[in-house]
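[User]
If only I could read backbone structure tokens as easily as an amino acid sequence. I have put the entry right below:
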Amino acid sequence: MKIKFFGFYLLLVISMLSVSCSGNGEKESWIPLFNGENLEGWDIKIAGHELNDNFGNTFRVEDGMLVVSYDQYETFGNRFGHIFYNQPFSSYKLRMDYRFYGNQLDGGAGWAKRNNGIMFHSQSAESMGFDQHFPVSIEAQLLGGLGDGQPRPTGNVCTPGTNIEIAGERRYDHCIESSSETYHGDGWVHIELVVYGDSLVHHIVEGDTVMTYGSLRLEEGDLPLSEGHIALQAESHPTAFRNIELLILD
């Protein structure tokens, strides 16, 4: 009788653990923002061009990846571009892989070499000015090493038209470096953002939390910035993205 009871108790515990793991397992709740086949659900805005004029086929799908390419350009010409997911979000986890490849396009700024970014809590594509270079947003800056032995961390934060608070101090620097290592070469790098409205953000690179900040605010009106769109940049260096997924947080 005791053996039967112990067996039943063990089975119950295993069942409860299984339910708990299933309840906390986020895999089933992740939403793919990019389907790997086309750019459905995304809007494009390139400076100097109308909404969804994808000049030079800058943003495209290749081998299941969302690619920023310049093979149809002659020179950059300050055509800063962004591709925006067409739905705004507030509290969520966002994850993706990115890699730089090839050479920077002629005419691109020196700081833009092996440089891209994830803009979030961003204004919409349709609200961008015709010649506007960057959306008002928070940027998780993506940088690649330049092969010169100098540190160049990724997962930094930049604040076009916004500002943040770090360790209780309001920061107005345009870009603030993270504690990440430098990633040289053209390999894939995994990045995650954990965003809680306007209150708290974590940048996680290859499993390490490299940047934490909060109290997101708009410069204009000094208002809390609690939601917005997600966008990827085109700043003159070819970049590929894959596995772009989002998990809504309560």
